[in-house]
Amino acid sequence: MVRLSLLIFGYRRLRAEEGQGHRLASVFIKLGMPAQQIAKDTFLVSESDFRRFRKYAGGRVRYTAGEPQGALPYILSFRKHIPTLVAVLAGIIFNIFLSGLVWDVRISGNERVSEGEITSALSESGVSIGTAWSSVDTAEAEAELLSRLPDVAWIHINRKGTVAYIELTEKAPTEPPDKPQYPCSNIVADRDCIIEEITVESGAAAVKAGDVVRKGDVLISGIVKTEQGTLFTYAKGTVIARAPGSISVKVSNEEQITEQDSSTLIEKSISVLGLSVNIFKNYRNLGVDYDIIENNKDIILFGQYKLPITYTEKYAATEISTSIFYSDSELPTLAAMRFSEELSRVLADKDLISIRTLGKYVESGYEMAADYVYATDVGDEVEVKISKELEGRAT
Amino acid sequence: MAEIRKTARGAAMTVSGVISLTDVSDSRISLALHSGRISVVGSALLISVFESRTVEISGRIEGVELLYGKA
Questions:
Q1: Residue A286: what pLDDT?
Q2: Contact (Cβ atoms closer than 8 angstroms) between residue B10 and residue B56
Q3: Higher pLDDT residue, A345 or A303?
Q4: Residues A50, A65: Cα–Cα separation, whole Å
Q5: Does the distance separating the beta carbons of A21 and B25 come in below 8 Å?
Q6: How far apart are CA A251 and CA B42, in angstroms?
Q7: 3-state class of A340 per DSSP?
């Protein structure tokens, strides 16, 4: 049986050549080196004694030595792995330490109270990311949170690993005292006009056909007085009125017009998934005044599959100004043409009732003007603030 | 000096002042001392060497031979 000291501190197995065991043993005696025979010509010596034996034995005796055995040599065989072992151990310790901290806070149950408010109150109550769980008294923190969050009726902090789950129930909302109990609106005139026609869907008509109204006058009221009391509602309906309008167009004998002189290609680029790559760029010799014209072309595959690729060309367009002179005989025709275009644009969405047009020569030109009357919807919905007195009379 | 005691394997004989061993086998162990030689015969003999030139022979010791004169 191997001695305990050899097992702990390490030993070697030395085997002498056949029949030379006595020579090996004699060396042990000479060196005063403890050795234990375990089999024919085979001895165990301590690892520390082996180093001394090896120096002395040299060529004196032939032997074969086994590998170091025992606990200490086994541990030392991992010497080259010590940095790894230390790192692993440090990692384990670090992980154990970190698992004792709060790393995430998840909140549920809040609808009106914002997460920012809750997180801020949590932090002030001693629960935030990085806090050690050992320092958190959840009951105390819950009580403190309730005092900091007046809209919360109940709150619970639950720990699961490194996550703090915050569950809460909010108090039932109460109506703000200054909010009107009865929603109500009127339809008012958006301009000065004469009422042509009024159609009421909800509320009470405040004007009739033929009435002259100013901008802001109530046309349909949302406050309706009945035998039972006052009714508040959203006024709905259509109010058509006659409104005046005017336009004028002037043409001068001399006019300045600007024309595009030339366009120069200044840039080419390709955009793929929003990322633009410039292919060509030339902004030299452009001068100061120019407009940029941009042409974009999407790349479509087989005529139907649009790729996320766009080809863009930019041109610098320069303009020149020139003067045009019109004779007196040309002015009315030109004025009439421009007047017609302007009239069509202005009356595109209106029902024209009447128009009076006048053209005349003015200084250095010709002017055409028109006064017209058209029919249009003039109602605008406006919310009504109800007085306390009226609220008391509501049904 | 030599002393013998009984053990579970048979007997154990401790000899001090050993200079060298001249024969080590499982049936005969021969030690050289200043004053002569000692041969221990038996079976399943094993030796343990200790510091201060002390050797213990254990096993089934059946006889001890003393040889006088220098080793």
A1: 61
A2: no
A3: A345
A4: 9
A5: yes
A6: 146
A7: helix
Query: Amino acid identity of B44?
Result: A
A34: nearest CB among B18, B22, B50: B50
Q: Hey, are the CB atoms on A22 and B21 less than 8 Å from each other?
A: yes
Place of tokens 């005691």: B5
- Indicate the average pLDDT of chain A: 84
List, in sequence order, every residue forming a beta bridge with A264; answer none if it has no partner: A316
- Whether ipTM tops 0.95, in short, is no
Q: Which residue spans within A163-253 are E strands per DSSP?
A: 163-170, 185-189, 193-202, 204-205, 212-213, 218-221, 223-225, 230-232, 236-252
**Given an 8 Å threshold on Cβ–Cβ distance, is B20 in contact with A41?**
no
Which amino acid is present at A93? I
Cα B32 to Cα A60, A169, B68, distances in angstroms: 19, 97, 10
Give A41's contacts in chain B (Cβ within 8 Å). 24
What is the 3-class SS of A85-124, one letter each residue? HHHHHHHHHHHHHHCCECCEEEEECCCCCCHHHHHHHHHH
The answer to whether residues A310 and A296 touch, using CB atoms and an 8 Å cutoff, is: yes
pLDDT at residue A175 is higher than 70: no
pLDDT band at A287 (very low <50, low <70, confident <90, very high): low
Q: Which of A77, A20, A70, A79 has its CA nearest to residue A45?
A: A70
